[in-house]
Amino acid sequence: MMNIPQLAAEQSLSPSVFSFTGEPFFSKQAYVEMTPQGGLAPSACACGGVGSCTCGAMGTSPSYIYALGTVQTQFPSLSVEKEFYQAVGDADVDKAPNDALYFKYLSQGRNRYIAREMCWTFQIFNTDSYVVKPRSERELTHLISALAPRPHFTFDVIVGQLGPLAPAEMCNGLQLPILLCDEMYTFTYNEVVETVKDALPRGATTDQIVEMLKMAFPLFANGGQTDAQRAVNFLITRYMAVYTTAWMMMFTEQDGQKYSFVGVNTQPSVVQGTDRVIDVIFTFRGEKNYDMVRWYTSVAVQGEFPYILTNMSRYYGGP
User: Fold this and answer.
1) How many CA atoms does the CB half-sphere of 259 hold within 13 Å?
2) How far apart (Å, rounded) are the C-alpha atoms in residues 218 and 34?
3) Which residues sit opposite 257 in a β-bridge?
4) φ, ψ (nearest 5 deg) of residue 123
5) Number of Cα atoms under 13 Å in the Cβ half of residue 100
6) Helix (H, G, I), strand (E, B) or coil at 202
7) Which of 52, 157, 168, 311 could pair with 185 in a Cys bridge, judged by C-beta atoms 3.0 to 4.6 Å apart?
8) What is the pLDDT along the chain (319 residues), one digit of tens a residue?
9) Within 13 Å of residue 43, how many CA atoms lie on the same side as its CB?
10) CA separation for the pair 33, 278 (Å, rounded)
């Protein structure tokens, strides 16, 4: 008999927080099989970007993004670069730009006007995927915070809306879809480990958590643009039952054997109603008789912020 502890969807990772001077405050192997697949095609909606705003017009709907990756910044033009180095102290004036240098000076309130002019990009598995445009000063603060030096590996979560392709002059010739950022979090690897450990039963080891994270991290090698991608990215950062289920299957005996993780499938839920719902199915294979056991959870994805509709449960449908 398999008994999984039920955890609230609110149990999630806690982002790192940095205060600013003068301002308030793995492997690339992909295991996910997502249907439908989606690339980084630009949207016709231009709210907050360039051109005429069409979001909210009759017959149009916004395309939302829920992506995991790494925030980067660069100078959009020689003019902004020269202005940045005017603000740099004598000790740093000859240093090449890097995240530590950017953070040191962009985090100073007197240089906020420069931060607004910077080109902000979002990398997914070291590939430039979006040009990020913050909606407000709050999101700009979070973008700057993502550059802060930290002792451990970090990753960023951005939630927002897909805009058009960035014009060539916006990022020194770099033309990528604009991501209009509404919310952002930054996590260190150690924060992830500690949060997952707190959700697991006593006796769970750090080595076991690391093995599960090796399973989880490749799942977000996607643009975070389709319903399926957004549902998966939401779950691995916001729903700790994913990890309690994996730990139970992988490290405790169920029906006389342990199970290894096989992969994740997604499909539109049979019951939709007024919501757009994705079933996310996690598959495990027995180490003795190789039988497949599946667990699933349903995620509503019609709005910008996904949410849980069905707690993690055994899945008996499909092959």
Assistant:
1) 21
2) 13
3) 254
4) -100, 135
5) 6
6) coil
7) 157
8) 343 333 343 444 544 433 333 332 233 333 333 333 333 333 334 344 444 444 443 345 789 999 999 999 999 999 999 999 999 988 898 999 999 999 999 999 999 999 999 999 999 988 999 999 999 999 999 999 999 998 778 889 999 999 999 999 899 999 999 999 999 999 999 999 999 999 999 989 999 999 999 988 899 899 999 999 999 999 999 999 999 999 999 999 988 899 999 999 999 998 777 789 999 999 999 999 889 999 999 999 999 999 999 999 999 876 5
9) 27
10) 13
Widest distance between CA atoms in the chain: 68
Q: What is the dihedral of CA 170, 176, 178, 183, to 10 degrees?
A: -110
From residue 141, alpha-carbon distances to 36, 86, 212, 246 in Å are 34, 21, 32, 35
Half-sphere exposure of 233 (CA within 13 A, CB side): 28
Torsion of CA 58, 61, 62, 64, to 10 degrees: 170
Say which residue the tokens 């598959």 belong to: 283
Contacts of 231 (CB under 8 A, 6+ apart): 266, 278, 280, 299, 301, 306
Q: How far apart are CA 247 and CA 5, in angstroms?
A: 11
Determine the Cα–Cα distance for residues 16 and 306; give it in Å rounded to an integer.
22
